[in-house]
Specification:
The protein is mainly alpha-helical. It contains 7 helices and no strands. The protein starts with a helix and ends with a helix.
Length: 134
Amino acid sequence: MTCNDLDVRIGERIRSQRKQIGLSQKELASRLDIVFQQLQKHENGTSRVPASRLYEIARALNTPISHFFDINERETPRRTSPFSEISAIVGAQKGKLGKQILELVKAFMKIKDEDARADIVSLVVRLSDSKARR
């Protein structure tokens, strides 16, 4: 996820939580002592939310700050991330294969359409099964 993608995701979660508790942009902006246009930019992901403001937003929306990130609070800190698993796989490969794996993962992560990602996984699995039989 790039910084811009993260900004958009945080903005979507702010908007979702605000609507869930029934606040307008003007009402939340007033609680934050900012103009509603600035809140609108945060919600659209066109303006980054400073950490201090995100803290204020979390308090105003009565939600933990972790809500705005893809964090599972029940997850233990020692649990490995998918990225560390990918890094371990790529690091174990030599030369061209390692580079191809990394290129494939980076490109795959940019695909927004879930159905397309599922189709790609299905295709790769089928290809790997057919190659194994030869």
